[in-house]
Write a structure and sequence with these properties.
Blueprint (H helix, E strand, L loop, with lengths): L1 E3 L4 E8 L2 E14 L5 E14 L2 E9 L4 E10 L6 E10 L4 E7 L5 E12 L2 E10 L18 E12 L2 E12 L2 E3 L11 E3 L2 E11 L2
Antiparallel strand pairs: 1-2, 2-5, 3-4, 4-7, 5-6, 6-9, 7-8, 9-10, 10-11, 11-12, 12-15, 13-14
Length: about 210
Amino acid sequence: MLFKANDVLTFGISGKTPAKVALDGDADVYLWRPDSLKVGGKSDISADLNLPGDIGFGISWQANDNLKVNLDYALTMWKSMKSIKVKFDQPITSLNLNEKELDFLWESTNRISLVTEYKHNNSAYRGGIFWDQSPIPEETFSPTFPDINDKISLNAGYGHDIGQWTVDLNMQYVMFTEREITKQSPIDNNKNGIYNANSISGNIGLTYKF
């Protein structure tokens, strides 16, 4: 929803309802006993993934004919990712395994973004920064997740109109806050260590207007 207060200020609100996605796959589960005997088996598996809802607010300021500045806030309700129950279609009787609950205990997160766009002739120059919390608590943190910790992202973009075509370029640099795990939790998902990461990504977009 958008509300234009006057020629320079526009306010907006957006939201997304939670969603449930059905997953299926297969699993190989084996255990080697002290007597070197291998027990376990294979099974098809299924689970329901509860994706979070979110709500966001934004304000756009048209400073002049060429310059626009946007400020946004978003709340993502990652609490829906408390756990995922994996069901085995063929129970693995040797391990007394017919379902497995994976604990995530994720938390809701806040995100704040500040972006600007300057238009000159047929070109648009864009820049932005955002701060985004990580939903993953220490007790369920795993190196398999790329979301190390809270992060700050710097973004730069360029767009150019060529007749009915528009070409858009974007580069993003994400800096993660370092996370140190010094005590393995009873859930046994996390691993002791110091974790850090940075990432660089980019994309190219092509738009045709008719």
